Amino acid sequence: MDALNALLDLKLREREQQGLLRQLRTPGEAIDFYSNDYLGLARSSALSAEIEQQYREGNYLNGSTGSRLLGGNYPLIEDTEHKLAARFKSEGCILFNSGYSANLAVLSAVPGRGDTILFDNLAHASLKDGARLSLAKHHSFRHNDPEDLERKLAAATGNKFVVLESVYSMDGDLCALEDLIATSRRHNAIIVLDEAHSTGVMGDGGSGLAIARGLEKQVDIRVYTFGKAMGVHGACVAGSSRLIQYLVNFSRPFIYTTAPAPHQVLSIQCAFDYLDRHLNLQAELQDKVSRYLNGIGSIERTNSQSAIQTVICPGNDNVRALSAHLATRGFDVRPIISPTVPKGTERLRICLHTFNSNEEIDRLAEAINTVTPRFRPTA
Question: In order of start, what are the domains of the chain with their CATH numbers?
Answer without folding.
Answer: 26-41+279-375 (3.90.1150.10), 60-277 (3.40.640.10)
